[in-house]
Amino acid sequence: EVQLVESGGGLVQPGGSLRLSCAASGFSFSSHWMHWVRQAPGKGLVWVSRITNDGTDGTGTAYADSVKGRFTISRDNAQNTLYLEMNSLRAEDTAIYYCARVSTTNWANDYWGQGTLVTVSS
Amino acid sequence: DIVMTQSPDSLAVSLGERATISCRSSQSVFKNSNKPNHIAWYQQKPGQPPKLFIYWASTRESGVPDRFSGSGSGTDFSLTISSLQAEDVAVYYCQQYISIPVTFGQGTRLEIK
Known about the structure:
The complex is a heterodimer. Chain A is mainly beta. Helix content of chain A is 0%, strand content 50%. By secondary structure, chain B is mainly β. The interface between A and B is medium-sized, with 23 and 25 residues.
């Protein structure tokens, strides 16, 4: 069974940092691109970042303009874990953060984790 | 960036009736005949993550009831529920995944009338 389990969310002050993790199981993690998608309370879905299956080529990572330069996506295929390092956090980064798998056959996000809540507030 | 616009923002339909949600992209999301329209539809219920329902604009994900169908090409797409059931109450999102940044529609809240 495919499982994605996010962790690392919490309350952080503006300007602070957090590192989110997404533990993957039940599939060949190293074969799949992965996304982070966030959802502010009561709002819609917003794509945050993407990493290719090895993340090492020149176009291996991509970011939304709103987080570029502040967030870093990475992965450890040996540990089946996806990460999102978030720095210089702002109130507008407050959201549930989901990791989502990219299907290798149709390129949509076929599995999603339950999400982890990040609250940026003083 | 490709802007995705859904209509309506909310929709109330009687049980057993048809529900249709529209989604328009600001640019074509057609790539080629093997990988046509890069449009997905997701269902999200309160307190749950989104669930993939439709990909390639019209292909149902495994396990999705056949009362759900997707259609459209180029820039105009729709999700139709042929006979609304109580368990279909949710927010539905369209998504384009042909280019970065991946973008979602604003969501359509579907309720029972």
